[in-house]
Amino acid sequence: SPTSVVRLRTTLDNVPGYVPGKPAAQRADLTTYKISSNENPYPPLPSVIKAVQEAALEINRYPDMGVVALREALAQRFGVGVDEVATGTGSVGLLGQLLQITCEPGDEVVYAWRSFEAYPIVIALAGANGVAVPLDSDSRHDLTAMADAITDRTRLVVVCTPNNPTGPVVHADELDAFLDRVPDDVVVVIDEAYLEFGRDHRAPDALATYRARQNVVVLRTFSKAYGLAGLRVGYAIAHEPVAAALRKAATPFGVSDIAQRAAIASLEAYDELAVRVDALVTERDRLLTGLRQLGYAVPDTQANFVWLPLGDRTPAFAAAAEEAGLVVRPFATDGVRCSIGEVEATDRLLQVAADFIKR
Ligand code: PMP
């Protein structure tokens, strides 16, 4: 970090930087694809564009700070009370809010690693101590080890299912056994950013789990299956005191009117969006099968991406993909995550993978 004359929080030195997926460079010789940020490749639905256009006429006004219409729509859809719903500027915004309402400096947050790269960032920003518990050999959460990692200082546990960037879900029975071991006053957030892409019957019913347990929070987003990544809107289902605290900790007017109305229109159009999700799931399974046939040890994935645990060969694979006009997401020397995008991107990725394994 650059040296500063003014005094900044020393905690900032511990905050890792967020490295977003690079945009795909324009090339004269071929169409390039960005498959690095788990975005939905489909353009917005006409009904969503119409909602955005209508909202655009009123951007001289602040949005509804209470986000009431969207919260009501979510409450109705999921059979919870409107007071059990909180929204944020993306689910990553809600994660920050969750840290603020649970952790004093020095408190502990248990999470799996490797998982979503924003976790260590929001934890460090809050001055809390992250306790990263390694995934098991199948790239899945080791919920036994996570329960063992809980101490008197633990205030929050993050369970990411399906796990970004590796893909598998936690199993319902494992989650229940885990939750039985978590003290009642420790919040457990189930981050289901990729829920809609899941087809594994062993996955938990997070809402049923939430109803049965006062300390569970369910976190979801409009960025992936709903295709609204650019509008920054996520939501949490939480028991009333927690949801009220989350709303208190929100950036005032943080979810724009454009985002609120687009999210409502997307909920209304979910049947149409589900057809697209199904197509992406088919494409994901084609990619997973193809990569495994080539000899890659790809873990199961229930999300809109696949994980290639390539170790030291991670940067070389990312470079080979880029050469072929594909921007993928390398994570240090752990592996490469490739999002499901256009059919042509999948075809090309399989070709890159076939050439790479022969090297
Ligand atoms: N949780 C997980 C597991 C994610 O992968 C992401 C996005 N990469 C998010 C939360 C945040 O998504 P958003 O802020 O766009 O809702």
TrEMBL record:
<dbReference type="InterPro" id="IPR015422">
    <property type="entry name" value="PyrdxlP-dep_Trfase_small"/>
</dbReference>
<feature type="domain" description="Aminotransferase class I/classII large">
    <location>
        <begin position="35"/>
        <end position="340"/>
    </location>
</feature>
<dbReference type="InterPro" id="IPR050106">
    <property type="entry name" value="HistidinolP_aminotransfase"/>
</dbReference>
<dbReference type="InterPro" id="IPR015424">
    <property type="entry name" value="PyrdxlP-dep_Trfase"/>
</dbReference>
<dbReference type="GO" id="GO:0030170">
    <property type="term" value="F:pyridoxal phosphate binding"/>
</dbReference>
<dbReference type="Pfam" id="PF00155">
    <property type="entry name" value="Aminotran_1_2"/>
</dbReference>
<dbReference type="GO" id="GO:0008793">
    <property type="term" value="F:aromatic-amino-acid transaminase activity"/>
</dbReference>
<dbReference type="GO" id="GO:0004400">
    <property type="term" value="F:histidinol-phosphate transaminase activity"/>
</dbReference>
<feature type="modified residue" description="N6-(pyridoxal phosphate)lysine">
    <location>
        <position position="224"/>
    </location>
</feature>
<dbReference type="GO" id="GO:0000105">
    <property type="term" value="P:L-histidine biosynthetic process"/>
</dbReference>
<dbReference type="InterPro" id="IPR024892">
    <property type="entry name" value="ArAT"/>
</dbReference>
<dbReference type="InterPro" id="IPR005861">
    <property type="entry name" value="HisP_aminotrans"/>
</dbReference>
<dbReference type="InterPro" id="IPR004839">
    <property type="entry name" value="Aminotransferase_I/II_large"/>
</dbReference>
<keyword id="KW-0663">Pyridoxal phosphate</keyword>
<protein>
    <recommendedName>
        <fullName>Aromatic amino acid aminotransferase</fullName>
        <ecNumber>2.6.1.57</ecNumber>
    </recommendedName>
</protein>
<dbReference type="InterPro" id="IPR001917">
    <property type="entry name" value="Aminotrans_II_pyridoxalP_BS"/>
</dbReference>
<comment type="subunit">
    <text>Homodimer.</text>
</comment>
<keyword id="KW-0032">Aminotransferase</keyword>
<keyword id="KW-0808">Transferase</keyword>
<comment type="function">
    <text>Aminotransferase that catalyzes the conversion of aromatic amino acids and 2-oxoglutarate into corresponding aromatic oxo acids and L-glutamate.</text>
</comment>
<dbReference type="InterPro" id="IPR015421">
    <property type="entry name" value="PyrdxlP-dep_Trfase_major"/>
</dbReference>
<comment type="similarity">
    <text>Belongs to the class-II pyridoxal-phosphate-dependent aminotransferase family.</text>
</comment>
